[in-house]
Amino acid sequence: MIDVTLDGERFPAFYRVMVPAYATAPRSGMGAARQGGRFNRPRQEALYLSADEVTALAEYQKDNPWLPPGTICTFFAKQLRVADLSAGFDPDHWVDLWADFAVDWRTERFGNGIEPPTWYMADDVVAAGLDGILFPSQARPGGINLVIYRSSQLTETQLCIYDPACNLKGILPPR
User: Fold this and answer.
1) Residue of 150, 131, 158, 144 lying closest to 50 (CA atoms)
2) What are the distances in angstroms from CA 25 to CA 18, 93, 168?
3) What predicted TM-score, i.e. pTM, was given to this entire model?
4) Domain 3-164's class?
5) Of 74, 85, 99, 170, which is most buried with the most CB atoms under 10 A?
């Protein structure tokens, strides 16, 4: 496993597009905890970010031919130790399980009724005391994503959202 510390040099910022109604809690990874995600089990908090705006939009759009309404935010992540899978699988650095990082986790979970191998990868990362995983985007070739575990427990120094005018505080939650 390649273990790196995010310092703001290689990735100065990360981006996320979210449903406007949930923009009042941009640091929360509880949405992904409802059903699980590519690199998180159900009930496991995981905040998914992208290393550039175009990838963030592609991840949000998913397979939809149209882009639904969304709020895009900039995040600064520093002092986080993460597994760096951004270059893809390399057997010199990763155990064989990680070769399946690009598996369609939804097909595995919902179509085949089995736990996707990426959930076991997440287990390994959390057990190693790391904060998350950098990984290639499936929605945009060449894009890089970051999943952060326990995001709501991180300090503002570790995970900061860029909102100088406090615009996100003015968005009302759904009634």
Assistant:
1) 144
2) 10, 36, 8
3) 0.92
4) alpha beta
5) 85
